[in-house]
Write a structure and sequence with these properties.
Length: 313
């Protein structure tokens, strides 16, 4: 029986080289997709934002330098709409992120039980994530119908024995954005629930058994075992939900078109309207670049706060 070649011999070097290249080669498709669909479009958006590019003109693009950014950030003519749209984005994220993460955590705790038929309930709560947002928004448009036969108005009228008068949920500035928040919460909570559920199932059961032996109650086990075990998962879910919140577009476009009076306008909706309704591609590109910088800053801030909290604890 022949002995295996010693490490570093000429016979083992080709195999070691192949193993060194295995990881980069497997990551190459994902890296290529990241470059083609993220880095390259973002670089093109930066390039377009430096020019006056219009779809309704045959003139060659005119170099504007930072003029587009000055107009959307400083100019009184255009900055008002942009800051209002950005404020709507911030308001939407400030409500949706904590509420959706908390609701997803509650659902994950309820569905993390060894009961009969539990996979059916998990599928039921995850189903809205699978359906296209255009379809879901169209269905919810019927629910929010302002007439007396609208589903929500009919249910509230029946529950109050006719005392509730029909309300234009999407036509009133006070209820338009909350209505979109409710739709988004219902549609997106299933994704966060599945991620948190996977994190729950990764917590060792011995920790719960040890806490129960020590006399810890249900709330104490949740604080001492569940939350620390889900720390990384909850941080990831919060970051992803924040990014998705600032990408709000489909619901606004289908339900309200940014109205009434800009109450539901977002930066993405304003950029699309500026590019295709006003034919100003350069200004729309500048808006998307500013939005990217804002989201990147908020993401880095969240990570920094979480890191400081870990160091303190």
């Amino acid at each position: 029986m022949t002995a295996p070649p010693p490490p570093g011999s000429p016979r083992t070097r080709p195999k070691a080289r192949r193993e060194e290249w295995a990881g980069p080669l497997m990551a190459l498709p994902a890296l290529a997709g990241l470059v083609l669909f993220v880095a390259l479009p973002f670089a093109m958006a930066i390039g377009l934002s430096l020019f006056n590019v219009r779809l309704d003109s045959f003139r060659p693009p005119e170099f504007f330098a930072l003029e587009q950014y000055r107009r959307i950030l400083v100019s009184s003519e255009f900055s008002g709409d942009f800051y209002r749209a950005l404020g709507n984005n911030v308001l939407f994220a400030a409500v949706i992120v904590p509420v959706q993460v908390t609701a997803a955590l509650g659902l994950a705790l309820l569905l993390n039980r060894p009961l009969r038929g539990m996979p059916v309930f998990r599928t039921f709560f995850f189903m809205p994530v699978v359906f296209p947002m255009a379809l879901i928004a169209t269905v919810w448009r019927l629910i929010f119908d302002p007439g007396p036969d609208g589903m929500l108005n009919s249910v509230l009228g029946f529950a109050t024995f006719g005392l509730f008068s029909p309300h234009d949920w999407l036509g009133e500035a006070s209820t338009a954005m909350p209505s979109i928040m409710l739709l988004s919460l219902w549609q997106g909570v299933g994704l966060q629930m599945v991620i948190i559920l996977a994190g729950l199932q990764g917590i060792p059961g011995q920790l719960y058994e040890a806490a129960e032996v020590d006399g810890a109650g249900r709330w104490q086990r949740f604080r001492a075992v569940t939350l620390p075990g889900l720390r990384n998962t909850l941080v990831f879910v919060a970051l992803v939900t924040t990014i998705l919140s600032f990408r709000l577009f489909d619901q606004v476009y289908i339900l309200t078109r940014g109205g009434p009076d800009g109450a539901t306008s977002t930066v993405m909706h304003l950029a699309v309207t500026t590019a295709f309704a006003e034919s100003n591609v350069g200004r729309a590109a500048a808006m998307t670049v500013v939005l990217f910088v804002v989201v990147l800053g908020l993401t880095l801030l969240q990570r920094r706060l979480v890191t400081q909290e870990r160091e303190i604890s």
